[in-house]
Write a sequence for this structure.
């Protein structure tokens, strides 16, 4: 097994252990069922994105050929998870013990580790600016699912999606603004990736 598959496997294992531990802790503390616990956890974009990163890395570890476009799109989403958390939410949290470890794993260590994996192993020169548009599908789909789901249980995972309080127009503007931010960071990933890809190609010819 080569270094890329080993690193991908370790990343997949880290995601799996982190999310399983989070699920188990909620079941143990609140004495609720697995389905309800899964429903609660997958209310959040953080869990969506970490899960997809874990699945993608597991496939690479199993020998599947990676898709640089998919991996770069996941880098965008997991990077936004880390950036938004540390800019807007981290100061509101006061976790201790195992909860703090899980929080750091989901919002810091796994995003940083995946960024490192992308930098070292992904063929970044295959990524183009038009790829940014499909990368917006995941955050847009998440927003739609979160709002539809909230109509049944009344719980909005993030305030900017609460069109019950904000109104449809303001909520739509919030989502569009979010997609614009994603687009900007996606373009930055493409820009950096293409330059790093040229360097990798040049070094490979030496």
């Amino acid at each position: 097994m080569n270094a890329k598959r080993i690193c991908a496997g370790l990343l997949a294992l880290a995601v799996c252990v982190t999310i399983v531990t989070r699920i188990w802790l909620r079941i143990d503390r609140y004495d609720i069922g697995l389905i309800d616990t899964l429903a609660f956890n997958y209310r959040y974009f953080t869990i969506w994105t970490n899960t997809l990163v874990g699945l993608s890395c597991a496939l690479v570890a199993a020998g599947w050929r990676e898709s640089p476009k998919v991996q770069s799109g996941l880098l965008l989403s997991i990077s936004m998870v880390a950036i938004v958390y540390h800019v807007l939410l981290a100061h509101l949290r006061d976790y201790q013990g195992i909860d703090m470890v899980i929080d750091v794993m989901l919002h810091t260590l796994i995003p940083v580790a995946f960024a490192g994996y992308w930098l070292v192993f992904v063929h970044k020169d295959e990524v183009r600016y038009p790829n940014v548009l499909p990368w917006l599908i995941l955050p847009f789909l998440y927003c739609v699912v979160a709002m539809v789901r909230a109509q049944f249980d009344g719980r909005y995972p993030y305030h900017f999606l609460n069109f019950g309080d904000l109104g449809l127009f303001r909520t739509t503007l919030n989502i569009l603004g979010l997609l614009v931010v994603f687009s900007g960071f996606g373009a930055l990933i493409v820009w950096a990736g293409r330059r790093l890809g040229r360097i990798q190609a040049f070094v490979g010819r030496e």
Notes: The chain has nine helices and no strands. The chain has a mean pLDDT of 91.
